Amino acid sequence: MDGSTSINIDGVTLRLVVERKRVRHINARLRQETLFVSAPAGVSQQILDQVVPDLARRLVRRVHARKVNTEEDALALVRKVAARFPNRPEVAHVEFVTTQMSRWGSYSSRTRTIRLHAALCDMPRWVLESVVAHELAHVSYLDHGPAFWALVRSVDPDCDRADGFLNGVSWLARNDGQLPPVTRALLQGLSGCTPDDGSVR
Ligand SMILES: [Zn+2]
Q1: What is the distance in A from the centroid of ligand 1 to the CA of 136?
Q2: Are residues 142 and 180 in the same domain?
Q3: Are 66 and 90 within one domain?
Q4: Separation of 134 CA from ligand 1 center, angstroms?
Q5: How far is the centre of ligand 1, averaged over its atoms, from the C-alpha of 145 (Å)?
Q6: What pTM was estimated for this model as a whole?
Q7: Which domain holds residue 51?
């Protein structure tokens, strides 16, 4: 692996540069699309092949977290949704979370921060907007009572459709491992029948 080659991590192709150095551990740095690895002279190629993908994946995901959180986009989108509310809620921060999160979104009235599951970035915009509308409605109502849902429906008529979409995604995420390989392969062959759902960014 000495010299320059390439490696594919989560669909991202990186140029890989491995240098043998007087270091004690295998270290990796990611600069744009190049992964620089420094390894002690005694480490075998086999060990490198095992270790490098994990190091690379961690760095790629860290970059992804930084990227989705520095896009001006998120706050602009949240403000656009907020403008639909009769009492426009104030939001100070929007944060996409790349660590484990059990819900699609949460809102803190103390910090006026909306936290969103990072997977929402890859879903159609109207689904992301629906989660934002739900969390912003919590600025007025903390519970899920009738007044809460009336407000949600008034600003997001698509909320039931978005809930259905998200329930489907959750179901697939929970069951993917248990699905027979044939079913999984058949699902991947689906091209969908709702063209307006394809607006992933
Ligand atoms: Zn809620």
Answers
A1: 9
A2: yes
A3: no
A4: 6
A5: 10
A6: 0.66
A7: 3-70
